[in-house]
Each structure stands twice: as structure tokens, then as C-alpha cells.
Amino acid sequence: MEITIDLKGLQPLIANEEISRLELAAEAAYKTLINKSGKGNEFLGWVDLPSSTSAALVSKLMLVAKQLAQISEVCVVTGIGGSYLGARAVIEALQHSFASLLPAKGQPIIIYAGHQLSADYMSDLNDLLEQKDYSLIIISKSGTTTEPAVAFRMLKSHLEKKYGKAGAQQRIIAITDKSKGVLKQLADREGYEQFVVPDDVGGRFSVLTPVGLLPIAAAGFDITALLQGARDMQQELTSKASATSNIALQYACARNACYQKGYFNEILVNYEPRLLYLTEWWKQLYGESEGKEGKGIFPAGVSFTTDLHSMGQYIQDGERKLFETVLSVTDSNRQLFVPNDTENADGLNFIAGKSLNEVNHKAELGTFMAHRDGGVPVMRIVISKINEYSLGQLLYFFEFACAISGYMLGVNPFDQPGVEAYKNNMFALLGKPGF
Ligand code: PA5
Hints:
Bound molecules: 5-phosphoarabinonic acid
Shape: globular
Oligomer: single chain
């Protein structure tokens, strides 16, 4: 497996015994999940997605991605929450850090809309789209979510003005429910190419459906390798019922042991800026799955070493109610060495000749020790490299562990009743009939 988990840094703040005491609960949660006998079991389609996704669907996604590439410099992925974060997490983890400023490589640059309601953002987007050939992937399982619906109304109208009705039709792909919702009706009426969000997969677990796969393929990444990574992790996690050998159960036990000891906030730490949106995806996955009924670990994220110069102070020295999960990447994809300087005016020759990745890892180790000594339990989830295969493993690992952890907490990890409250108020304030 690409992923290993290292719990040593939880000690001495969390004793091994405090973790192992939760193993029975984790194994019970595992049975609940595998037997599909728990709360929200109508939303367990994600468990088998890696192995059940057909070669025909993958080929179709790749074909449509290729067609989009032929006609677009830019592809606007329009969706929010689970209908957007998974794709962005993978694309940003894989793409060149300055992709949008470099000459095009035959794939469109992926940009995003429908994930907020900002007039300035949409106006800026319009300015850009005036100058670019573009296509649009609209993603909404319900087909009724306000933010993407508003963005889509605006962008559809812009596309139709720019390319005419028939031209726009070629450039819009809809990913939605197989039969319900206004987006489905509209897509049928307009004759858009469509992909289905399966009924039994909730938004935050949908990255391995067309919701994530089409944008990722459109960005030029290998969805076959992504699915293969997820498939191998599915095989690994669904075949090990014991908490001593199943890494997802180990992670679930460790984080719940921290929670039970009063460490209510989990910070996912990365040392690679390209993992920022993976952290955002993880925050949604865990926050929306566990934060209910007055319970749940609060998921937060930091990017080090950047945030060591901002949040580092609090983590080292503030209230002792947080623990860290470091997403550690052993090897960088590219090698860079610190050059020697004969004058050494900056005094940095002590690291001359070292790889930047080694320097980054020394920062990681130094921070690990400092935070643990400062009263922060720290665990590590380690992958060897960032690529499609390892990301596929990581996505599935986090999903599986999230389901286990939610069941251990006693909540339904697959609903999100709390997200309706703001919508009801907003609709009433905007005068929507019936609110
Ligand atoms: O995880 C979830 O269920 C949510 O984040 C939804 O994905 C999000 O609210 C968007 O919903 P929809 O796809 O119906 O537009």
C-alpha cells in the first residue's frame, strides 16, 4: 500500500491503551458498514465505486474530456460542496502550480464557479470568459442548489450569446440525478451531454463518480490510475476486519481517542501547497459527516511551513484542545538542490547541496517534535509521492475512515440536516414562494 499511518507522536499525551480500548467499537462500526446495516445505509454506493465503475463509463468520460479539450482553453466547473471539492482537490494536487500562466498543453485550464455568490467573482469570471474559448461542466445532484444554479443561469446565457444556442449546447455537460430535479429537466430539454450522480452516493463521497472524474479527466489527468489506487485501497480496507491491521480503523480509533480526551479540533497539516484543496475536501468530508447532534471533531487545516508563521503560534502555545494529522509526502516529484554560494552572505551554506525536499522534511520533523512537546498529539499519514494512484488511495482511505469514525461517534455519517438552516432563512429573505 502507498499509505502508512504513524501514531507514535500521539504519545505520551494519548496512551496506546486509550487507542486500543476503542478497537472493539471500530470493528463493530466496520461490520455495520460492510453489512450495510447502519444509519444512512442507503448512501453506501461509494464503498464499491472503485471496483464497480465500468470501463465503458471511464472511456466515455475520457472521450468527452477529449472533446472538451478540442474546443476549450478554459473549462468552468460549476458546483459547490461535494459537487466541486473532490475534483478541485485532485486537479490542484496534480497540476503545475502555475498552470494558468504557462502555455496551454492541449488541456483546458479548469476554473470554478457556483461555489459562492460573489458578484465580484462572477464579474471577473465574465471578463475572463469574454477572452477565452470555454466549456462548462454543471454539477448538481439535487439540481436545485442555489449557488451553482445562479452561476449556471448566468454562464448559460453568456455561452449562448457567445456561441449561439447550438454552439452552447456542444459546450455544456450536465452531471446530475438520473431522473429528478430541474437541472435534469433542463439538460434533457436542451439536449446536453449528461452523466449521472448515482442515487446511493452523497455529494462529499462522490469524487470517484463523474462528479470528480470528468473534471479531472478534462484537466488531462489519468482517471484510470486514480481509480486503480482507490480500487487497491478498497481491496485492502474491505478485507481487513481487525483494527490492528486496518489503517482506516486505526485512524478512526486514534482520532476518537483524542476527541474523548478533550482534543476537539483536528488539524490536517500539509507541507505541499498543492494539497490545500485536498485539505478543503477532507474538511467537508469530516465536518459534514460528523458534526451533528452536538458532537464531532472540528476539522481544520493548515499548510506548513507557510502557516507556521501565522497559526504556528497558536498551535504551539494556545489552548490545548487540538491534535494534528500530518499528511506527509516522502518524495517530491521533482528534485531541487540548495546552491552553494562562495560569499555565503546569507549564512545558508550549511544547507548547500541538500535537496529542498530534505530541508522541507527537516522542517516537518522539527515541527512535529515542537508541537508534540508543546502538548499537541500528532499522528502522521504518509504517502510516498503525489500522483493519481496515491491520491486514489488517499481519497478512498479518508472516506472509509470517515464512515467508521462517524459510526463510532453514534451519528449518521451520510446525512447533512444542518445545511438546510441557512437556506431556509436566505430563501425567506429573498422572497422565494413558500418560505
Ligand atoms: O456533500 C453534500 O451533500 C453537499 O456538499 C452537496 O454536495 C452540495 O450541497 C451540493 O449539492 P448538489 O450537488 O445537490 O448541488
